[in-house]
Design a protein that fits this description.
19% strand; alpha/beta; Rossmann fold; 5-stranded parallel beta sheet; 136 residues; 5 helices; globular
């Protein structure tokens, strides 16, 4: 089984950006840990550019996609339309509980077209999403 993890804008700053919200561990460090705990092949892509995320989604060749589109979750009709158009199931992940934050973060345009959503469990959300694909 192969799972693709895609992180959107500013998630390259994990470990240093707002550690009270996002923690103090870089995603690269977390990914090493995650790979040791799950029984599947993991690929990883991060971009601050909306079109690059769409290109990777459209070209993906895997069994499932874990997507944290960051701020684009609340603004990108283009990423939403892409997720709705591909046949690979997508689980949306957010490190923080977006429903408990600023009102502009409460609505995700992606959630309605994703297989499921995981919010507020920190980096553990990526493992939960990955295990969903492994178990199903």
């Amino acid at each position: 089984m192969k799972i693709l993890i895609i992180n959107g804008p500013n998630l390259n700053l994990l470990g240093t950006r707002d550690p009270q919200i996002y923690g103090n561990v870089s995603f690269e460090s977390y990914l090493i840990e995650l790979k040791s705990r799950v029984d599947c092949e993991l690929e990883y892509f991060q971009s601050n550019v909306e079109g690059e995320i769409i290109n990777v989604l459209q070209r993906a060749s895997c069994d499932g996609i874990v997507l944290n589109a960051g701020g684009y979750s609340h603004t990108s009709v283009a990423i939403r339309d892409c997720v709705a158009s591909i046949s690979i199931p997508v689980v949306e992940v957010h490190i923080s509980n977006i429903a408990g934050r600023e009102s502009f973060r409460h609505e995700s345009l992606l959630s309605p077209v994703c297989k499921g959503c995981i919010f507020g469990f920190g980096l553990k959300g990526y493992e939960l999403a990955t295990k969903f694909f492994i178990d199903n």
